[in-house]
């Protein structure tokens, strides 16, 4: 029960009046005849402590009448019926809570849950409520469709219960995508129904590293508002970020130190930090980083041969982003088979540049073995090779071996040159000669498929320009030469330049021009080494450097590598399917280990460096991107006015005060009748001799 005028409760103090009167004034029970009292001294009534309540029923009736009158003036009503009787449709509310890694600081997550719980408590039973959690992705905790299947009084209770089951993850913060999806969910929930206002309640630390790019091209709906419930951490924060994962060797052949950026947030109390390797005895690297700035620090590599090292930052109050993980230094020794007539010392041939495409690194060494196209091949020659380069016509026996190699997951690169213009009979290819294309000056590449693993390393805007790579000669391929092949790049005359044809578990890649100087400038361009490296990794996957992956990234896993299980940093094991080409369950930082037939291979996953940028984003930034922010004071006044209006209407409809007044009148009539009867009864007792 609620009251429209609760201040009238002060009138209930009047109930004390009958009690006091009953204590200080009591009528004698009888009369004793006496001749004269003029010579007697009057005596006051006995103290109240010696009094006892008399006429208790009358006292209760009089007190009850006063209480009923006070309650009637307070105008009571039952709020439980307010939502049902109000007649106004509820709004659509999405509580969007940030579960990214930056929410692990101090008590930020605890305060975020409390803030989200308070937002849910403010919802009315008629509101349609949904709860979403986000980091790199947006996940429904309680969607509108599921909430609509619940009773109105159950929605908020279920949402609050599921809210307590959430925990922060290690993912980055895609705030823009989360806001767009939340606004879209509100619009979708209102489609086909009555137009009602919607509100997104954002509970987040609003850290500066949050990505907002998706808001730039989104038109914020006019009927949706954004209610910010920012929760920020106490003090500053410092974090680590690796600048490069494959540094060039220093003079003398020694590996260069790691270059690490240490970032310190503005307003931090600490500015002196240390960088140390876990489990490695050695001096720490000092890092002085003033608040609001960053510094690049060179950290010597730990000794080789030990376990996978971890670099830690000490001196920071929040440790969630103070570690960098590196995979163990297991060096790969790979053999590439070249089938062609070129001499290794001939700078005009393919082999000369192929041997120089892969430099020796601490993680990998590549050896090129050259054979004549007509030389017989055995299964042992090609079984472990990650790549076979074919620049000639192999024998029938060798073709059968290569066919088996492809079916087992191998990769064959067929290079068409003037000396070998015919496709080998692999993967259903026609063994007829390919005609030479006519070019006035030169050809260039266009329509490049940058989402393919072969060109993905060159997909960045600083690498994707192929206009300076000229092809003087090339061969013209058609669909009849390699049926079912996918074109990965074309020449500017429309002819296919790079094709791929799956065959079993492997693939055939055809290059319609060579990289030797007589055919093109490819070997002498900056694109050659990344392309050759990508070809090398099509079968065996990327070398286990383990320093470029971030939480949430998809790690390429080639089916040909034979990997069966991935061991996560927390000790859990995830089985890989036979046709898996990537591992996507990188949900925590640390070192992951792949079980392969050739031994364990590891890769490292690190936290997104932007999670260390914990300074709060200005509210004006969201307004400039089009978000319609809620005026909390105006919203509070409007909500209070609506609540008061509903209460008044409800109280008017229920009219509980009339019932209370009627009962008070009845009680007063009973009290009057009882008091009169007691008075007449007392007089008869006195009149009796």
TrEMBL record:
Residues 93-205 form the VWFA domain. Keywords: Membrane, Transmembrane, Transmembrane helix. The keyword DNA damage does not apply. This is VWA domain-containing protein. Residues 1-76 form the Aerotolerance regulator N-terminal domain. It comes from Gemmata obscuriglobus. Signal peptide: none annotated. Pfam families: BatA, VWA_2. The keyword Flavoprotein does not apply. InterPro entries: Aerotolerance_reg_N, Class_I_gatase-like, Double_TM_dom, VWF_A, vWFA_dom_sf. Gene3D superfamilies: 3.40.50.880, von Willebrand factor, type A domain (3.40.50.410). The chain crosses the membrane at residues 6-24, 56-74, 655-677. SUPFAM superfamilies: Class I glutamine amidotransferase-like, vWA-like.
């Amino acid at each position: 029960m609620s009251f429209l005028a609760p201040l009238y409760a002060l009138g209930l103090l009047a109930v004390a009046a009958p009690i006091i009167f009953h204590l200080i004034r009591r009528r004698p029970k009888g009369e004793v005849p006496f001749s004269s009292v003029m010579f007697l001294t009057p005596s006051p009534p006995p103290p109240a402590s010696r009094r006892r309540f008399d006429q208790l029923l009358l006292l209760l009736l009089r007190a009850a009448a006063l209480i009923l009158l006070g309650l009637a003036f307070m105008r009571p009503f039952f709020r439980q019926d307010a939502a049902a009787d109000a007649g106004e449709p509820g709004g659509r509310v999405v509580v969007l809570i940030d579960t990214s890694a930056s929410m692990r600081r101090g008590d930020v997550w605890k305060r975020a849950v409390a803030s989200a719980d308070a937002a849910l408590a403010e919802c009315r039973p008629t509101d349609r409520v949904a709860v979403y959690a986000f980091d790199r992705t947006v996940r429904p905790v309680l969607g509108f469709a599921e909430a609509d299947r619940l009773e109105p009084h159950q929605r908020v209770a279920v949402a609050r219960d599921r809210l307590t089951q959430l925990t922060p993850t290690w993912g980055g913060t895609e705030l823009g995508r989360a806001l767009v999806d939340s606004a879209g969910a509100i619009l979708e929930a209102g489609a086909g129904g009555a137009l009602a206002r919607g509100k997104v309640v954002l509970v987040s630390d609003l850290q500066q590293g949050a990505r907002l790019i998706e808001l730039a091209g989104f038109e914020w709906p006019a009927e949706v508002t954004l209610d910010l419930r920012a929760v920020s951490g106490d003090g500053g924060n410092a974090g680590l970020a690796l600048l490069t994962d494959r540094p060039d060797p220093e003079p003398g052949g020694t590996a260069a130190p790691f270059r690490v950026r240490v970032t310190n947030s503005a307003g931090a109390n600490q500015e002196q930090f240390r960088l140390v390797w876990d489990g490695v005895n050695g001096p720490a690297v000092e890092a002085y980083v003033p608040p609001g700035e960053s510094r690049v620090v060179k950290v010597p590599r730990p000794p080789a041969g030990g376990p996978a090292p971890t670099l830690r930052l000490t001196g920071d109050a929040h440790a969630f982003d103070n570690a960098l993980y590196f995979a163990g230094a297991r060096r790969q020794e790979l053999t590439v088979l070249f089938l062609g007539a070129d001499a290794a010392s001939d700078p005009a041939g393919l082999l000369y540049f192929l041997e120089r495409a892969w430099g020796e690194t601490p993680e990998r060494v590549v050896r090129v073995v050259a054979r004549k196209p007509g030389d017989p091949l055995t299964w042992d020659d090609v079984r472990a090779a990650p790549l076979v380069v074919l620049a000639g016509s192999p024998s029938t026996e060798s073709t059968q071996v290569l066919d088996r190699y492809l079916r087992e997951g191998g990769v064959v690169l067929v290079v068409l040159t003037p000396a070998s213009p015919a496709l080998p009979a692999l993967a259903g290819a026609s063994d007829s000669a390919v005609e030479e294309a006519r070019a006035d000056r030169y050809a260039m590449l266009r329509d490049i498929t940058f989402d393919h693993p072969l060109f993905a390393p060159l997909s960045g805007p600083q690498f994707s320009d192929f206009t300076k790579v000229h092809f003087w000669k090339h061969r013209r391929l058609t669909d009849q030469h390699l049926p079912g092949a996918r074109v990965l790049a074309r020449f500017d005359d429309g002819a296919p330049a790079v094709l791929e044809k799956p065959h079993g578990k492997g693939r055939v890649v055809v290059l319609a021009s060579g990289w030797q100087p007589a055919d093109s400038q490819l070997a002498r361009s900056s694109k050659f080494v990344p392309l050759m490296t990508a070809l090398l990794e099509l079968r065996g996957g990327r070398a286990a450097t383990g320093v470029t992956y971030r939480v949430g990234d998809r790690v390429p896993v080639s089916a040909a590598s034979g990997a069966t299980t991935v061991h996560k940093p927390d000790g859990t094991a995830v089985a890989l399917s036979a046709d898996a080409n990537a591992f996507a369950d990188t949900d925590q930082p640390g070192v992951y280990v792949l079980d392969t037939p050739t031994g364990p291979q590891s890769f490292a996953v690190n936290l997104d460096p932007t999670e260390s940028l914990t300074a709060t984003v200005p509210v004006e930034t969201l307004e400039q991107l089009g978000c319609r922010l809620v005026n909390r004071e105006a919203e509070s006044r409007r909500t209070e006015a609506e609540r008061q209006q509903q209460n008044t209407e409800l109280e008017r409809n229920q009219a509980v005060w009339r019932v209370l007044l009627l009962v008070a009148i009845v009680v007063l009539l009973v009290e009057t009748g009882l008091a009169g009867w007691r008075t007449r009864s007392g007089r008869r007792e006195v009149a009796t001799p």
